[in-house]
Amino acid sequence: MASSRGPHRYERVTITLVPTADERSFRHVPTTFSSSERTYAWRHYDKLDYMIVPKKISNREVKIELFVDLQAKGKTNAAQVHKMIQGFVEAKMHTEWMGLKLASISRASVATPPEQMFRRGTIEEILGAQLGK
């Protein structure tokens, strides 16, 4: 959970995905929302920890904010961070994000991830109810 990480700073990018004609597009909206914890959870992939927060979901695009905590040793520059994020997104496109294709990845910026708990009626609960997850 974000609260256990203290004042640490993270990278944030906005990823825009485009649904394909495939009906599975909206079954795989990327998120790391934990319904049991009722907040967004951190996950691990290769050399980074990540949190995904959906920002916009429409029939034309899905925008998500990806918060990243790099686990690579030593200093990393913006190009290395972007390359790691690109690799992460490509891997997810082929495994978990079925029916979505990549439109864009914004430049990374320093940010703090969300720490608040969510009440009934969050986007994940609404989508989960409609999609029968």
Topology summary:
Elements: E1 10-19, E2 33-34, E3 39-40, E4 43-45, E5 48-57, E6 62-70, H1 78-95, E7 100-105, E8 109-111, H2 123-131
Antiparallel strand pairs: 1-6, 1-7, 1-8, 2-3, 4-5, 5-6
How does this model look, in words?
This protein is an alpha+beta fold. The protein has one domain (2-114): Alpha-Beta Plaits. The chain is built from 2 helices and 8 strands. The longest helix is centred in the middle third of the chain and has 18 residues, at 78-95. The two termini are 23 Å apart. The model is unreliable at 1-6 (pLDDT under 50).
Helical amount among residues, as a percent range? 10-25%
SSE succession: EEEEEEHEEH
Assigned CATH architecture: 2-Layer Sandwich
Terminus-to-terminus distance: 23 Å
Kindly report the CATH topology. Alpha-Beta Plaits
Largest sheet: 6 strands, antiparallel
Specify the structural class: alpha+beta
**How many E-type strands?**
8
Low-confidence stretches: 1-6
Count of spatially separate domains: 1
What general outline do the C-alpha atoms trace?
globular
Radius of gyration: 15 Å
Report the sheet-strand fraction.
25-35%
